[in-house]
From TrEMBL:
Residues 132-269 form the Fungal lipase-type domain. Residues 1-18 form the signal peptide. InterPro entries: AB_hydrolase_fold, Fungal_lipase-type. SUPFAM superfamilies: alpha/beta-Hydrolases. The keyword Aminoacyl-tRNA synthetase does not apply. This is Fungal lipase-type domain-containing protein. Keywords: Signal.
Length: 339
């Protein structure tokens, strides 16, 4: 009788553990198994130990066609002159009109490096009621060097929601003070109910993440007005920042192309970085050439060991090619439509 009671109790405990959600499991001090979908599974190849990575489907649907026809030209428009930026829109999104191009010094203060600049554009579509903030990618070797060096230097508090890398913080603040704040306040006054689309590739992706978060934190726009889509985004903030971000924005997609090396930087478990930086949701991973019709994975974890983090062999070429388009010079050509 006693033995039967013991076995029944053990079985009941096992069932209770199996029924626990990932969050409940981790809050009770245990690990959640991504493979078996069980709490404290005795055999598990992929354990989840951070609530940030508990499996979760996005609240909105990712649209591959929209990404190719609208978001991709926004990458190109931010990386070229005002004239060619408008041509990017004319070729792909004719009702979108360039509002402002902002170019500022965003150099590391070190006197040993030459000056570097950050750029971005704003645009307005009064037909579809959309405002745009699109940030330019890294555009010189010096700027790339500054970013890499900064990974080992310092972080800055992002309001009351964790920390982000100092370079990203300072670069965004330079743009904000260099005309972006006045521009967005003016656009908000004229178009208070419009959606705000925020985007960028590479460095521009990190600045887009910060920018979308910034205008919400300052109360300029509501989270439900925001749409964020980035490509090749490096890790931008710490656990608290990433957790706040993914619990704030319903529409937030990080596009990762196959073996793109930049989304893996800085390394999540860097020995010299005790803060450990994390991506926010939701990763969309294309493990192919991203040509039209290519399959993609909507990743359930924010920054676990599924999807692109499975890759040990990393590629710079995959970083510069998104949606089967070479982003180097794409904007300068007027963002020609893909055949």
């Amino acid at each position: 009788m006693l033995k039967s009671l013991i076995f029944s109790t053990i079985a009941l405990l096992a069932v209770c553990q199996a029924l626990q959600t990932c969050e409940e499991c981790l809050n009770s001090g245990n690990h959640y198994c991504a493979d078996t979908k069980m709490c404290n599974s005795p055999v598990c190849l992929n354990s989840i130990t951070h609530i940030l990575n508990c499996p979760r489907a996005p609240n909105v649907t990712y649209d591959d066609n929209e990404a190719r026809t609208k978001w991709l030209p926004l990458f190109g428009a931010s990386a070229t002159s005002a004239q060619m930026a408008q041509k990017c829109f004319d070729n792909n999104w004719p009702t979108m009109k360039l509002s402002k191009r902002i170019l500022v010094n965003c150099s590391d203060p070190s006197p040993i490096l030459p000056l570097t600049q950050c750029a971005m554009i704003t645009a307005v579509d009064t037909t579809q009621k959309v405002l745009v903030m699109s940030f330019r990618a890294t555009n010189t070797g010096t700027q790339l060097e500054e970013e890499f060096l900064n990974y080992f230097v310092a972080k800055k508090a992002f309001f009351d929601s964790g920390y982000i890398f100092e370079f990203f913080y300072d670069a965004y603040l330079a743009l904000w003070k260099g005309g972006l704040e006045a521009e967005m306040r003016n656009l908000k006054y004229r178009y208070p109910d419009y959606e705000v689309w925020v985007t960028g590739h590479s460095l521009g992706a990190a600045l887009a993440s910060v920018g979308a978060s910034w205008v919400v934190k300052t109360g300029l726009f509501k989270p439900e007005q925001m749409k964020l889509l980035t490509a090749g985004q490096p890790r931008t903030g710490d656990y608290a920042y990433s957790n706040w971000h993914q619990n704030t924005f319903a529409y937030s997609f990080r596009i990762v192309h196959a073996h793109d090396m930049v989304p893996h930087l800085p390394f999540q478990y860097e020995l010299v970085d005790h803060d450990k930086m994390y991506h926010h949701r939701t990763e969309i991973w294309y493990n192919n050439d991203m040509s039209i019709g290519s399959s993609y994975h909507v990743c359930q974890e924010a920054d676990g060991f599924y999807c692109s983090n499975q890759n040990a062999d990393l590629s710079w070429n995959d970083h510069t090619h998104y949606y089967n388009t070479d982003l180097d010079g794409y904007g300068d050509k007027g963002c020609p439509k893909a055949n």
